[in-house]
Amino acid sequence: MKIILLIKSNLIKQTRSRSFLLILLTSVFLGWLCVPAATDGYEIFYLGGVRGIYNSAWLGTIAALLSTILLWLPGFYLLRNQVSEDKRLKIGQILAATPVTRLQYIAGKVLSNFIVLCLLELLFLASFLVMQIIRGEALYISLFDYLQPFLVVTVPYLLVLAALTVLFDVFPGLMGAFGNVLIFIFWVTMTTLSVAMPENPFDLFAIGKILQAMTKGARSAFPNIPAESGSFGFYTHTDPTPTFEWDGVSWDSSFLLSRLVWIGVSVGICVLASLVFDRFRKEHSEKNQQTSDFKQVTSKRKTLSTKELPTVSRRNTISFASIIKGEARILTGGLSKRRFLLLVAALILSWVTPLTQMRWGSCILLIPISVWSKEGCDKKQYFTKELLASCGYQSVKWWASWLVGLFIAYALSAGVIIRYLLAGEVSHALAWLVGAAFIPTLALALGTLSESSRFFEAVYIVWFYMGCINNMGVLDFLGIAQNNTLIYFIATVVLLVLGRCAAVWTENAGEKRRIFISACDKKPGIVK
Amino acid sequence: MRLELRDVTKMYGSKKALQDINLVFDSGVTGLLGPNGAGKSTLMRLMATIESPTSGTIIYNGEDIAKKPNVLRRELGYLPQDFGVYPNMTPVEFLEYMAAMKGLSMNSARKRIDVLLENLHLSDVRKRKLGGFSGGMKQRVGIAQALLNDPAVLIVDEPTVGLDPEERITFRNLLASLSDEKIIILSTHIVTDIESIAPRIAFLTGGHLLANLSPEELIQKVEGKVWSCVVSAGKLSELSERYTISNAIQRCDGIHVKVIAEKQPVINAEPIAPDLEDAYLFYTSRKGE
């Protein structure tokens, strides 16, 4: 019973966040984007130039495949700090004083994270179902065909993911940037292995197995297509894509049994996390350092004195340089030596990585993710909103935050841009110049809109993977394989405008929230 | 120097948080007293330009602050009830940042920061990160930022939360020493905090302004309405249902009770001299009328 209440309260907390709402809306949008009409001129899944008819089996399976990219990493960044949040919001010690056991607490977090992930996945599936009706290629809706890949493939990997989100939030050393990098490496390794070893019965994502079954179906209709041709991307075409009817994957018993192993693995991770979890005894949150990570300080006991205060003069104009300095401290404050060294390494790499290897070399722009993700949301994160609101000049702070983010992006990009220019590759240099500006702008806009660092982290990591590493067409914001300079220049300007509008809106958000609360509460009375 | 509220009403949706508030603040300390939900913090947020009134105007030195908030913001020191600090900054870095946000000249701000830290006894921790500070120390940093710009209007919401009794007394003295040339608006639940320094007290309850008087006038209003009597435990619960109990102390001859009532609550009750706490209770919870 206790654990159900824990799950319920966690779910309420998570699903009422603005990040959750934004990710929900993104899921619906992606659902629409990922099921293009035959005449739309693009496909997001390449199978030797053909694709399955949009029936329930095809779309349900594509959803399971896509979620390994669109949900796994964003889901991790969205949910990875649930324990730290309890610490930040100062309810950790209250919970620690209750009879809830460590395992109950951790299991509650894992299960509520799992339910949130399932909700997102089911919404994604629902949007695919709606798209099946809209596209009208196959009108028979089979819920079983939608739910089968969800239950067989998605549920086990989401359980593992939910357990990892909690483990990485309690295991010393995994809570910060190192954990972020490690989970990225884990994910890349697992997806690569999954594609490369389709016969592996212990394949977490089952990508290879599904692609093999799809290719088999395609080859029965189009024998000339290559045996290993399935991949996700942005593939344009002029003629309508030929289609074939596909009935889904026949899961063999050994594979189904292996799914139980992964469920067991997630239980094991959950138990491990509960053993490591210190029940809020130690203050060690690396990400949310509201009260943690700092040596407790005491000042000498003296009576406050009332020594005469010197007068202070006001400037006619605001000191923008001082605000920039303060913003730099806010964004980069708390950088551990390890992260600082990583930044230095990235700086050096930008000067030495061969320009032909920029696909992986672009990873230098992943390192400051935790710096950029503070843009636009520090006031909410550190509860300084009212203090700063009474000072005015909030717009100056907003622009200063953007400039600091921009400076970091260009500091890390300087080596690459200059070397591109020296090599005469002006278009590449220009693309990188615009792409580097796009990152802090995206961070600021999403941070302002969601008032959370997690939404940007979730979006950026997937965008980066698909755009810069996999060079998926229009998502390639650094122009590594495809020049999208104009698109990202416009996107940067649009994001700045949107972000500024969101900033003006959120400056009055406290007031709006009180109006919303009073509208929800039908009882007459007075709100404080 | 004058801050004036004219018919200020604040609605959150259909709920009235404040209704037709008319108040004038001149230099000196004004205490805002009222129970939870009375609208004190809402009133403070309106005066601190964080929110705007639904109707009515707030005038500072002849300017409507809803239209020209920066007129007041330049001269405002504000300490909210709940606030945070940037944990990775030292007190000096944080105060320098706040000084920049308040549009102060950095050279003069640095000198003032030094003295503020000294006055608030934070000099010895000036190079330590705020993340490791105790609640009381963070509160002192909050007080320092409120005084940073030598404000003409100082609005402090529950400023003594987290301070120990000695610090509370000294903070009160600090406010009193500043009150000659500033408008100081102090909101608190602690009646003694206000009693000792505020020559004017505004009582709020249910979003309404009940009274705006001096402590002496407030006490005068409850003259003859405060009673002392000795009762049994059973009688006490009966009394507390009908009247407001200001105090109850267990003694060997029974429970010595201080009752607020228009008329003699029990036969053996004797009228006694009221204090400000009795006046507060009289205004905020009227029973037995």
Description:
- The complex is a heterodimer of chains A (528) and B (289).
- With 528 residues, chain A is mostly helical.
- Chain A has helices at residues 2-15, 18-33, 56-70, 72-79, 82-88, 92-96, 102-135, 143-170, 177-196, 207-221, 253-276, 320-332, 337-352, 358-361, 369-372, 378-381, 385-389, 394-422, 426-450, 454-469, 485-507, 509-520, and strands at 42-47, 51-52, 230-236, 243-244.
- In chain A, helix 3 (56-70) crosses helix 7.
- The radius of gyration of chain A is 25 Å and the shape is globular.
- In chain B, the strands form three sheets. Chain B has a six-stranded mixed β-sheet, with helices on both faces. In chain B, strands 2-1-4-5 form a four-stranded antiparallel β-sheet. Chain B has a four-stranded antiparallel β-sheet with strand order 12-13-11-14.
- Chain B is of the alpha/beta class and 289 residues long.
- Chain B has helices at residues 40-47, 69-73, 91-101, 106-119, 135-147, 165-178, 191-195, 215-221, 233-242, 276-284, and strands at residues 3-12, 15-25, 28-33, 55-60, 63-64, 76-79, 153-157, 183-187, 200-205, 208-213, 226-231, 244-251, 254-260, 270-271.
- Helices cover 33% and strands 29% of the residues of chain B.
- Chain B has ten helices and 14 strands.
- The two termini of chain B are 41 Å apart.
- The mean pLDDT of chain B is 89.
- Chains A and B meet through helix 12, helix 17 and helix 22 of A and strand 2, helix 1, helix 2, helix 3 and helix 4 of B.
